[in-house]
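Entry 14. Structure prediction run on the chain below.
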Amino acid sequence: MTPADWRQRFRAGEVRQTAALCPGWTQANLALIPAAFADDFESFLHANPAACPLLARGRAGDPALPDLGDIDLRRDLPLYRTFRDGQPTGTLPDIAAHWRDDLVPFAIGCSLSFEADLVAAGVALRCHASGRSCSAFDTALPNRAAGPFGGNLVVTMRAVPADQVALTTEVTRNHPQAHGAPVHAGDPAVIGVDLSRPIDGLGLTDVRPGEVAVFWACGVTMERAIASARLPFAITHAPGHMLITDLPAQPHGASAWTP
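Output returned:
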């Protein structure tokens, strides 16, 4: 199925996590920010490029991102999260009734985009399968603040065979628009992560004998920035329920991983 096929299914009401869907195409985090805060938010993204690689910024009130495909941002993600005064207030499969003329769209790279390339390189990735996903965690690492936006870094975790950590790092370094190389590998406590507390309870959290916990910066970091700014209103994707774009997930313009 193509990205457009998946977006049509989501527009029709299907709700599912997007891990392992549409390999070879870029998935994106979404943030819809009131125009009064949009420039500061973009400055925050540029100040924290590993967590928040900016793929596209849209126009206030326009639910399209033409650089990423024929997209209706009000309906084409499987699940959204709403915020008031910086705090999450619920999830919705369609935000048409909550759309506002002052909302500015931001699409931010997502590490789900590089998973197919890891598998193609031979990495034994248990979280890359239908109905399975990586997990995300809060850390003790502060973001670089910009305007009212700050908070701490959020990371994703994937359990990787110890003898494939170097390969995993090499492959993902070539995907800077999908968070790039890991920020940490090994003891979660070093970065303040508690593996018993995944965000929203999603994803695989176990690390088996012979595996290493490997952590990447995560776009959910922007939720912590929204909380720190106490925005009166904002909308994001719900974690794990991404925008599937028409942008190929190619490392530095290559067509596929080659060792």
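The radius of gyration is 17 Å.
Filed with the rest of this week's runs.
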